Amino acid sequence: MTLARRAGLLPAVLAIGACGVAGPDVAGEHAAAITSGSLDAMDEAVGALRRRRAACGQPAQLVCSGTLIAPRVFLTAAHCLADVTSGFVGLDQLEVVFGLEVDGVGHAVVHAEVHPRYDPAGGAHDLALLVLDAPAPVAPAARGDLAGATSGDEVRLVGYGAVAVGGPAGAKHTGVAAVDAVDAATVRLAPAPSLACSQDSGGAVVRHAGELDLLVGVIRSGDAACASFTVATRVDAEAGFVEPFLATVDARVPAGRPPDPAADFCAEACASDDDCATGMRCLADRAGGRRCGYADVGPGTFGDVCATDADCASGRCAAVGSGDGQACRCLVTCAGEAAAPSDGCAIAGGGLEDGAWLLLLLAVPTRRRSPPARRRPRSAPRRRRCGRRRSGRRGWPAPPAPSTSRRWRTPDRRRARRRRPRSARR
User: Fold this and answer.
1) Domain range enclosing 119
2) Distance of alpha carbon 113 from its chain centroid, rounded?
């Protein structure tokens, strides 16, 4: 399944509650942070998948973890893209971050490839490849296999998830787990003493071989208490999916075009998303035109560098660009356009028919039950519908056949009866 820049941007309906992107539970298991672990500054290739922030100075919304396996390719779990494939979130609203904290510089995602045999119900082939707009600032991880692995062998888990159920997440941790069982597609791990937990999904299972630390698994799931087991997808078992993609990615997915913060996006019209810089869309405005802008903040111009909304006369400090070129600048929305709320939440599936960028904050009232309809007595005549009554047409009842009873005889018939001679009457 391919999710290109626009292919995965389907209409969104409604966002309720938190704005984070969360994958579905797999067979009753949690959507796998590293428990009993420690902060990890060594595994530079392991990064975090987060939501793009609508406003600077606000907490990042962690989605999942993952690992860079090529200069522009980030390997994660397929269920981490559940909200993208369902159209709840646009692919352009995701970023990949490298470093110790999830609040770092974000790198735009321009393409996603979900394993064609991924099974959301059972979790089989739970892998996805994300393509960044430009080469990442860290070296890719070396990949290995689990050949010869036996029960009790130690591996390391790396991810940005929670350190315990309900605990904080967003910092990269690592911990040691033990191989419990290995099959053709997955590896099951036992605590030694660490396991994966919430939002570690997509994170790395690392096996030490000689002088190298090799990526051998992608964290998929575990028990709800993060205390008994973790299940990971074997990387070596999915070589048929990963290797051909890596061989052709540069030809298939061109590098992104970074936006110019000094450009006047209000003055430049566009016809499609292809006319816009990476991460932007061609959005409809209220005047009937189309201009490039970020879906979560709308079209506008970027001014001075800022840190929070309070630094801007417009009241909006928004991120522009990607990677090393990403900066927070004051946003002035185009004339006649309303600024999107800066609470970090956005409903932007990208597929609204008119491309409108305005966020839909929908209050759904409680539906009141209508009083039961009053029934007419069976003997009451049916009310005539308004308008011309046409017989024989579907949806319109035909007039009843004339009755021969005395009660329903028309006045004309009664008069005709009275005109007959007395001798002819019965």
Assistant:
1) 2-9+24-252
2) 14
Q: Evaluate whether 195 touches 188 at the Cβ level (below 8 Å).
A: no
CB atoms within 10 A of CB 311: 16
Q: Based on the fold, state whether residues 41 and 103 are members of the same structural domain.
A: yes
What's the CATH number where 56 sits?
2.40.10.120
In a domain, 162, yes or no: yes
Distance of CA 267 to the CA centre of its chain: 31
- The residue count of the chain comes to 426
| Whether residue 190 is found in the same domain as residue 286 | no
SS3 198: coil
**Residue 411 covered by a domain:** no
> Measuring CA to CA, how many Å separate 181 from each of 80, 185, 200, 281, 361?
24, 11, 20, 46, 47
pLDDT in tens, the chain (426 residues): 666 543 333 333 222 223 333 333 333 344 344 666 678 788 999 999 999 887 888 888 999 999 999 999 999 999 999 999 888 888 999 999 999 999 888 999 999 999 999 999 999 999 999 999 999 999 999 999 999 899 999 999 999 988 878 877 889 999 999 999 999 999 999 999 999 988 899 999 999 988 899 999 999 999 999 999 999 999 999 999 999 999 999 999 988 889 888 888 988 899 999 999 999 999 988 778 899 999 888 888 999 999 999 999 999 999 999 988 888 999 998 875 544 544 433 323 333 222 322 222 222 333 334 444 555 555 544 544 444 444 444 443 444 444 443 333 334 444 444 555 554 444
User: Residue 425, class by beta-carbon neighbours within 10 Å (0-12 exposed, 13-18 middle, 19+ buried)?
Assistant: exposed
Q: Note whether 248 and 261 are same-domain residues.
A: no
> For the chain, what is the domain count?
2
User: In this structure, are residues 129 and 75 in contact, taking their beta carbons and an 8 Å threshold?
Assistant: yes
Q: Is residue 297 within 8 Å of 314, Cβ to Cβ?
A: no
Contacts of 324 (CB under 8 A, 6+ apart): 105, 137
